[in-house]
Amino acid sequence: MEEMLYDPPFLLYFVLFLILLVTYWWKRSTARVVKLRLPPGPRKLPLIGNLHQLASGSLPPHHTLRDLAKKYGPIMQLQLGEGLAIVISSPETTREVCKTHDLEFSQRPVSLAFQVTSFNNSSIAFCPYGTYWRQMRKICVTELLSTTRVHSNRTIREEEVWSLVQSISSSHCHTKMNQLPINLSHQISILTNNITARTVFGSQCKDRDEFISSVKQVFVLAGGFDLPDLFPSLKFLNFLTGMKPALEKLHKRVDKILGNIIDEHRLKRSANNMYRSRNYTNHDKPIFDHHEDLIDVLIKLQDSCDLEFKMVDDNIKGIAQDMFAGGTETTATVMEWAISELVKNPRVMEKAQAEIRQALEGKKKIYEADTQDLVYLKSIIKETLRLHPPGALHVRQSRERCEVSGYEIPKGAKVFINAWAIGRDSEYWVDPDKFWPERFEGSSIDFRGTDYEFIPFGSGRRICPGISFATAIVELALVHLLYHFDWKLPNGINSEELDMTEAIGFVSSRKHNLLVIPTPCIPFVDE
């Protein structure tokens, strides 16, 4: 049945095309024309607008948009189905959108995937801007993802990264004779899943793998240009394409798993509170003694009376889902690209390893406190984020009509900020396509959203709240991988031959898994 939904017969496509064509001409004949001073843009085709320019070829959309911007300028318009899209491709225009007019562009477009899976608009990433969003954003910034909270979870990261090192070492021992490669992409994915799961859910969660798989499937479905989002007035497309039933099935599964997790946490919390109320002695312990995870924090906030909007279970579910969406694949993607660039650029790899091995000489196990002064490593992470921002396109929507760079932007227009193109703008970056971490040495440019030529995590009100969480994982993992192992490509492949093709999707990850051969260099604690 699912195959039929996603592989309609030719006749269905033909009928759908006729319906869209008739609808287009009817809307065009009845629409009231409002003249606006819009940005320039390429010519449009009837019905589909400029969709053919994004859908044709094998390049990801942000590549195509960069090429179009070279012709039409740093602010241009596109017609994507029924909707108007404004594409921003320069730091100056980004500053206007994310600072000067940040409030006007503080909304994000509502997609079908969001409508179905957001737990009644509980997702902080996509819920409408307003009082509720401000409250939940504040909770994220001050309670869940603050520097203090991230630091308090450092033991989780240290344990899981050490497990990664041991897993890679074990794989090397099993393949030492034949020098077989390992799938480092897979290993990194396991790492980020484990860290995020323990941070959000705690040490035990029986349905964790099913939950992670379901959330990833949601974002695969949400990662492209879908007909229901391109032609929102044609409601029947929600069911005709099979997208809505598929999303509803996944959401039902995620909802059930998160409901069980919340119930289990609430039970443990009640049991521990009961023990504390009995004033147990030092020889007694609560029946459930575990590290406070983010679900615990949210339940505690739910029980308090300090919130303007009372938190319900759907809010907890929405935040938990956001944490996995932002804390697993995007973080893994940054690490994957960093190792890819290091393997492709042996000079940089050797320099990074020299810095790390000299600073940590004699250590058999590394802790987060040991990594604070690794300046070149931090430059490598910045350079990776410049060339490979995990979210290449940052999407906003205008809440009201306003003016940007002398052009009128109507209410409801989608705005795509091309962070990938901005990070490769030759007006701001010398030799912009070259992986050269030294460009950040002695530079104050950072990725916190105030340097508009470098916005891998976004900027303004909608900047990613999990920057500290993500960078803590990336730094610690890269230090371990470069300290304990040397790396090379399999089958005698030269470093410059490494395939760096990007996948097309919600996250700008590698198209192909990173297969590399590790050689242990530093002895381990258990050896």
From TrEMBL:
Keyword set, alphabetical order: Heme, Iron, Membrane, Metal-binding, Monooxygenase, Oxidoreductase, Transmembrane, Transmembrane helix
InterPro entries referenced in this protein's UniProt entry, alphabetically: Cyt_P450 (IPR001128), Cyt_P450_CS (IPR017972), Cyt_P450_E_grp-I (IPR002401), Cyt_P450_sf (IPR036396)
Pfam families found in the cross-reference section: p450
Metal-binding among keywords: yes
Transmembrane segments: 6-26
Annotated heme binding sites: 464
Requisite cofactors: heme
Family the entry assigns: Belongs to the cytochrome P450 family.
Name under which the protein is recorded: Cytochrome P450
